[in-house]
Amino acid sequence: MTPAVRRARTVLRDAGRALRGRDLSLWAAGVTFFGLLAVVPLLLIALRGAAVLVSPEFVQEGLRRWGEALPPQHRPAAALDALASAALGSSWTVLLVALLPATFYGEGLRRGMTQVAAEPAGALVGWKGRLAFAPVLLMSPVLVVVLLGTTDLVAGLYTAGGWTAVLGVVVSFHVDWLVLSAVLCAVFLANTPSGVRRRYAVVCAFSTGAVLAGFLHGFLLFLAIPIDWSIPFGGLVVVGAVAALGLWLYLLHVLVLFAHRLLLSTERTRAGRRPPVEPPPGD
Q1: Running DSSP on this structure, what letter comes out for residue 119?
Q2: Averaged pLDDT, 66-80
Q3: CA-CA distances (angstroms) from residue 88 to 47, 55, 92, 136, 212?
């Protein structure tokens, strides 16, 4: 067994001990709650910022092209068109008000990562998380420009079908990987305890970004399945769509929180520290 494999096994064992008897699923559900509150305001701000950086036509046409390229079973084109209209048609007052709920995502991530690290939350954990999320808000218009700037290339490959569509998946995977890794770098660096080496956080962010990029491409396959999401909810289409998106967000947050635990365990293993103390029952 190589030293690298031994270190990896040690990190995994440490992460398993740290999470044993604790409720990672509940923490991920909590982050998802904050994420559902924040995702639309965040997208409105990011899209409007991209329109300022480039042009409203750039944003509207990019979302339209993505809507045409995505599987049509659940009508994503209509949702993207409505999102573009809301982002470009809202007043600056509305967007200013949207800043507060957009920062809820930072609060949810901070609370979840604090639980994973087995640290006390503190009275100001919410505001600390919101302030720590400011870099993501600032960079979001630039990231949207990057995503929409590749729309013509990727959407054209997607709609061509066959092996050309596979090439489109490869290209979009790498674009999504870079965008997600940039966001995760900001999140991990802002919410990781000071004792963890910064370069470990960056490596963890890019590694997790690769996993999440593949995970989101799996969501495209999920969109292609002709299943009526509203069946368990009495035919209420909007409720079914929100529940489906919430499920995928929840699974995404499970991966993010577990990656954060691996980051902490990597630092603990490097420093040769003792395993974490088991939390008391009911923690």
Answers
A1: -
A2: 79
A3: 8, 10, 10, 20, 28
Tokens read off for 91:
């007043």
Angstrom distance (rounded) from CA 146 to CA 141: 9
3-state SS track over 208-238: HHHHHHHHHHHHHHHHHCCCCCCHHHCCCHH
CA nearest to 252, candidates 207, 197, 203, 211: 211
**CA–CA dist 102, 109 (Å, integer):** 12
Rg (CA), the chain: 20
User: pLDDT tens-digit profile of 189-221?
Assistant: 998 877 788 899 999 999 999 999 999 888 877
Closest to 48 measured CA to CA, from 110, 122, 99: 99
Domain spans of the chain, in order of start: 14-271
CA distance 24 to 31: 11
Tokens linked to 168: 């489109």
How long is the chain?
A: 283
Name all contacts of 257-260 with Cβ < 8 Å and 24+ positions apart.
257/24, 257/27, 257/28, 257/31, 257/112, 257/113, 257/116, 258/15, 258/19, 258/24, 259/204, 259/207, 259/208, 259/211, 260/113, 260/116, 260/117, 260/188, 260/191, 260/192, 260/204
Least confident window among 1-10, 98-107, 118-127: 1-10
Task: List Cα–Cα distances, 12 to 115, 117, 146, 150, in angstroms.
Answer: 18, 15, 35, 37
